[in-house]
Amino acid sequence: MAPGQRSKLKSSAQRAVRTKFLETYPQLEPHIDGIIPKKEQLDIMKLPNRCSLYTLGSRPLFYQHMDDDLVPHLKLVHQYPDFFPRMRVDRGAIRFVMGGAALMTPGMTSPGGRLPQDGKEDARWSAQEELEPGRVVIVEAEGKEMACAVGPLVMGTQEMREKKKGVAIEMPHYLGDGLWKMGLD
Q1: Do the strands 136-141 and 173-174 form a parallel or antiparallel pair, or are they unpaired?
Q2: For a pLDDT cut of 90, what percent of the chain falls above it?
Q3: pTM tops 0.70
């Protein structure tokens, strides 16, 4: 993916982006000054398919398709991994995730996968609420420490448990995709 035109955001637009980010991810409020410092210049870069990438210098923060929710870049997710709703895919789904395929529900409802409120032995999972369609989640892979994808849910987690088939996350941002490899220098 080739970077497009980069422009600086006005301070009023920067405040609006900061507010929208906090509305979408309120759990990151204690860290917002580290993510989007008030005195730093936030840039916006146009990408193909009506997407915008918000950057702070050469550090990607999040992207947005038209007026959808802000989706954190995986580099931001890796800095603050415990502040986003999470799901896990089983080992068999990893190669499909890394190839850019839509994430399917069977990869998350199988024994290696995990949805919120599964696994009462781990507070990171049991403390999460059920998630609704449209909610942005990070996707971890079974046996791996870092998130491998992030994107909005197509179906809610309750529906995934009931149906156990279908698309769970369509068109995620994943490790190694064009957004990940993009040079911002």
Answers
A1: unpaired
A2: 49
A3: yes
